Each structure stands twice: as structure tokens, then as C-alpha cells.
TrEMBL record:
PANTHER family in UniProt: 6-PHOSPHO-BETA-GLUCOSIDASE-RELATED
Chain positions of site Increases basicity of active site Tyr: 111
Name of the featured protein: Alpha-glucosidase
Amino acids binding Mn(2+): 171, 201
Key words, A-Z: Cobalt, Iron, Manganese, Metal-binding, NAD, Nickel
Length: 219
């Protein structure tokens, strides 16, 4: 199935390589064009070069292109995956946590909720709204998957500003149960039946049971 998949923020070594790797493992997406987009041309070029070499060396049925221009990247896009951050994220996250603390507001981290999450939202939501405006202009039928935080605040704002945009917030927190639950319970993940629900970054495991016995695995 040939699709045009745009990765926004692809110059990130973590997001760019990780997401490209996920796509390249998909049989369903074989034949697709992966469009790498970032505002940093230097890091974008590095990711593009390495991804292209990986595909060519292994003869994988994918095409890689890269551009710093959203108008070019979004033309004919079927899917868009967004993962951006503004400024020096670790230094700013530190401020988001420490400044409220000086006024007696203690947060676990402050990336998504509380006053720290508000500061984070005020930085990152404006450029995301600009991105969404361009999506509506160049590829309004595209489905957008967002991995940027604060997830719930971004999704709320975008769906209010662009109610016709197919905008989906995703997080690895439930998927990460595959790594954590086996270590906690001492059994393979395949031996468990797990149900989870809730908003991104506000989710909860509703039930966990052993498949062979039906016994409740919740501590």
C-alpha cells in the first residue's frame, strides 16, 4: 500500500530514527514514501542520509525524501506524524518544574499537568496550530498523529481550532506495559490479558488477568 507519510521533527535522533525504523518494519506500508521534515537543515540532512543508506543497503521497498518546507512536505500527504519541541527542552522543562516549586507548588515533573504543563503548552501550542493550519491548506484529508506534549492540552486546543482535522494524540505509556508488567508479575506479556483506558497521560490499567487461570493479576 503506497502512502505518503510525513514525519515532522524528523531531525531528532530519537524521534526521526525511531519512527523511520517502525515504518520500515511494516509490511502494510511497503511502497510508501517517507517525507522527513524539520526546521533544522543540518540534523535533517544527517537523518536523511542515514535512513537512505539503510534502505538502499537492504533493498527495502520505501522511498525517502526530506525538506525544510512544510508546503512541499504536505503536498499529497496521507499521514502526518508530529513530534516537535520548542527551544532547549530539557532546560525549559527544568524551569517548568522549579519555578512553581519556588511558590510552593510541587509537581512530579511538570511536563503535562499543573503550572509547568501550562508553561509548556504556551510554548508549543502556537507552532502546532501553525502546522495544523498548513495541513488544512495543503492536505486536509490527512490523518495526523501527535506525539508532542502536553498531549491532552494540545489535542484539546487543536480539535477546538480545527474541528474537521483528523488529529489523534498517541503515547507509548500503555504500550510500555509490555516491558514493565512481565518484570512486575514474573510472566510473559503474552500470558496476560490487560485492559486500559483513559486520556493520553491520564490513563489507567482497568484490569490485568492471567490468561490460563483467569486469576486477577492486580497486586
Amino acid at each position: 500500500m503506497s502512502q505518503r507519510i510525513v514525519l515532522i521533527g524528523a531531525g531528532s535522533a530519537q524521534f526521526g530514527y525511531g519512527t523511520i525504523g517502525d515504518i520500515l518494519q511494516s509490511k502494510v506500508l511497503e511502497g510508501s514514501t517517507i517525507v522527513l521534515h524539520d526546521i533544522n537543515p543540518n540534523t535533517l540532512a544527517v537523518v536523511e542520509q542515514n535512513a537512505r543508506a539503510f534502505i538502499e543497503e537492504r533493498g527495502l521497498p520505501f522511498t525517502i525524501t526530506a525538506t525544510t518546507q512544510r508546503s512541499e512536505a504536505f503536498q499529497g500527504a496521507d499521514f502526518i506524524v508530529n513530534s516537535i519541541e520548542v527551544g532547549d527542552r530539557f532546560a525549559l522543562w527544568e524551569q517548568d518544574w522549579r519555578i512553581p516549586q519556588q511558590y510552593g507548588v510541587r509537581q512530579v515533573y511538570g511536563e503535562n499537568g499543573g503550572p509547568g504543563g501550562l508553561f509548556h503548552s504556551l510554548r508549543i501550542i502556537p507552532p502546532i496550530l501553525e502546522i495544523c493550519a498548513d495541513i488544512m491548506k495543503y492536505c486536509p484529508r490527512a490523518t495526523v498523529f501527535n506525539f508532542s506534549n502536553p498531549m491532552s492540552r494540545i489535542c484539546t486546543t487543536v480539535t477546538r481550532a480545527f474541528p474537521d482535522l483528523k488529529f489523534i494524540g498517541l503515547c507509548h505509556e500503555i504500550a510500555s506495559l509490555r516491558n514493565f508488567l512481565p518484570r512486575i508479575l514474573g510472566v510473559p506479556y503474552e500470558a496476560l490479558e490487560v485492559r486500559a483506558a483513559g486520556l493520553n497521560h491520564f490513563s489507567v490499567v482497568l484490569s490485568a488477568r492471567y490468561k490460563d487461570s483467569g486469576q486477577d493479576a492486580y497486586p
